[in-house]
Amino acid sequence: MATAMFTDCSTSTTAAAARFLPLNRDAVVLHSRRSVPLRFGPINSSLLRTTVTKCHASASPSVLPAAMAAETSAKIIDGKSIAKQIRDEISAEISRMKDNIGVVPGLAVILVGDRKDSATYVRNKKKACESVGINSYEVHLPEDSTEQEVLKHISGFNDDPSVHGILVQLPLPSHMNEQNILNSVCIEKDVDGFHPLNIGRLAMCGREPLFVPCTPKGCIELLHRYGVPIEGKRAVVIGRSNIVGTPAALLLQREDATVSVVHSRTKNPEVITRQADIIISAVGQPNMVRGSWIKPGAVVIDVGINPVEDAKSARGYRLVGDVCHEEACKTASAVTPVPGGVGPMTIAMLLSNTLTSAKRMHNFK
Amino acid sequence: MATAMFTDCSTSTTAAAARFLPLNRDAVVLHSRRSVPLRFGPINSSLLRTTVTKCHASASPSVLPAAMAAETSAKIIDGKSIAKQIRDEISAEISRMKDNIGVVPGLAVILVGDRKDSATYVRNKKKACESVGINSYEVHLPEDSTEQEVLKHISGFNDDPSVHGILVQLPLPSHMNEQNILNSVCIEKDVDGFHPLNIGRLAMCGREPLFVPCTPKGCIELLHRYGVPIEGKRAVVIGRSNIVGTPAALLLQREDATVSVVHSRTKNPEVITRQADIIISAVGQPNMVRGSWIKPGAVVIDVGINPVEDAKSARGYRLVGDVCHEEACKTASAVTPVPGGVGPMTIAMLLSNTLTSAKRMHNFK
């Protein structure tokens, strides 16, 4: 029947896509550098740090577009600067709302346990809120809290009129039912936009989602701010996660692109990708998308943020995207860097969604 | 921003897709026989009966695949026979449920006004219900009923434990708010499966929709019953309506096809379509998909049911699909006829959804 289900994909949700990408089913393990078709499988986190650490220009030279030889240089899409601009706009809008109706948007974050990475994400979100004038509320519960305690706090935030957005920082401790907890956030405050009702509305023409998920919203925003036309263009989204790939494809289709979704079961992904005017890659596989995958002049949005070993770095690793940046720069007309591309946009869109929520609740135009 | 909306698409919903196809935004008006790219626009119902009434083999001969010359003959996918088989299976399952727990599934249909076509659809659904042992309940309200009266009846069916599925026959009289009325059907009885929550669950990995919309479910069921492999195949869905195209694309992706959606803003739709191993066309445009659009050996599911003038027919018209059947037969490996392909599957899937609903409500395995 038509209801066969995925069994190997993560249902995790979060506003910070980066840390989830390595968990999604579309992660790719590269074998012997460049086997085509690629063998796909569940990601092994140790591989993330030991496989491809730089692009190898020797890959499939026979299929490299002729234009690559010309060493053209793509425009770098500066996500950091655009995100700053958006945050300034949000900040101004928040001042206007405060002056007019005395309301300040509020974002509540619930953190359970002592994971350092989670603590860092929460700290960054709080700082971002402060920088634009959003009140942030944090509940930090110990690792051994009960599900009931988490639900109690969510319920409190659901009822609190000063809170316009609620985030539950993932992952939750393993003794908790993540789906139960996420479902308890009322849809009007679900600023992550991952509720199936929102995704359904995103998929349907004539319907409006309450919130658009932050990372894909950030991708489209980058295209808009750089004046990249979308209507009538071929777009390929690599990856079909609930938090990036699927909503990104739906958003592109809403903007009248002709969209193809490439995923772990796709044969010859490079052939399909090479047809695209716009590529959004969100698989969490370092340097998977090579220059030979990119049509000359295409625009490339690289959502991957993958740590790879780097002895020269003080941290012992550096971050790279899904796309081999140096090769993409020679073929694409524009490309996002990693870091500094989509990453800063995700938090900017979270702030934007929180502002949208507050404006909607108070009917402020 | 990423929230630009369609303004020209129908939000109508129904289990019988055929009559809605001419209303959807992806309907195509053919100009001067074969202009490429095609000009798309809102459908004009008079054109439906006066434009292409037969396939013209002269179309783009230069791009016809060589294999077409071989006059191969596609397998005809017999929807009528498969639908009969499914109805027999449903009938047996209903007997088993009745024998075991004494429950008979019930489908309620609400019809407002005196449209002859609507009356015919309702009568056909009732007959289909009877043929498999589903109780059908009908409320027929006069054209000048109030919205409140319709809502009262829906509310009654929502609360009635003998009713497991509720259909509101569309279109409703213009003085009623269709969305209000459809939204009042409780999601557990929304056997059409068009609720955004269902569509969202369909789009998301790890989530299960309560109901899969009948027509796209019927398309996938045909592929399954004919043993057509889907995983890893290229699929093109032509049309992105809420009731067929979009859910069909989501279903194919759930089955691990690599899916591209072709629509009214797509440039060179025939080039993209020709890459597909599986084509599902649902645009409501007679004979739009020509032989030259079809890769030799592809499987073609034709959802369109379009009336075209036919002086030889007693009715003055005959029904044709979106696909030029005679050309498709020479190129495809298998193709659905119109009528007798997807059409009979839609009602079979409605019966299947009603049975599913009754089994779920009574926890009958």
TrEMBL record, chains A, B:
Keywords: Hydrolase, Multifunctional enzyme, NADP, One-carbon metabolism, Oxidoreductase, Photorespiration
Annotated TM spans: none
GO cellular component: cytosol
Gene3D superfamilies associated with the record: Leucine Dehydrogenase, chain A, domain 1 (3.40.50.10860), NAD(P)-binding Rossmann-like Domain (3.40.50.720)
Associated pathway: One-carbon metabolism; tetrahydrofolate interconversion
Any single biological process term in GO: tetrahydrofolate interconversion
GO molecular function: methenyltetrahydrofolate cyclohydrolase activity; methylenetetrahydrofolate dehydrogenase (NADP+) activity
Pfam families xrefs: THF_DHG_CYH, THF_DHG_CYH_C
Positions of the Tetrahydrofolate dehydrogenase/cyclohydrolase NAD(P)-binding domain: 213-360
InterPro entries: Aminoacid_DH-like_N_sf, NAD(P)-bd_dom_sf, THF_DH/CycHdrlase, THF_DH/CycHdrlase_cat_dom, THF_DH/CycHdrlase_CS, THF_DH/CycHdrlase_NAD-bd_dom
Ranges for domain Tetrahydrofolate dehydrogenase/cyclohydrolase catalytic: 77-192
Reactions catalysed, as given in the entry: (6R)-5,10-methylene-5,6,7,8-tetrahydrofolate + NADP(+) = (6R)-5,10-methenyltetrahydrofolate + NADPH; (6R)-5,10-methenyltetrahydrofolate + H2O = (6R)-10-formyltetrahydrofolate + H(+)
Xref: NCBIfam families: PRK14186.1 (NF010783)
Function per UniProt: Catalyzes the oxidation of 5,10-methylenetetrahydrofolate to 5,10-methenyltetrahydrofolate and then the hydrolysis of 5,10-methenyltetrahydrofolate to 10-formyltetrahydrofolate.
Family: Belongs to the tetrahydrofolate dehydrogenase/cyclohydrolase family.
Subunit and partners: Homodimer.
Protein name: Methenyltetrahydrofolate cyclohydrolase
Organism: Actinidia chinensis var. chinensis
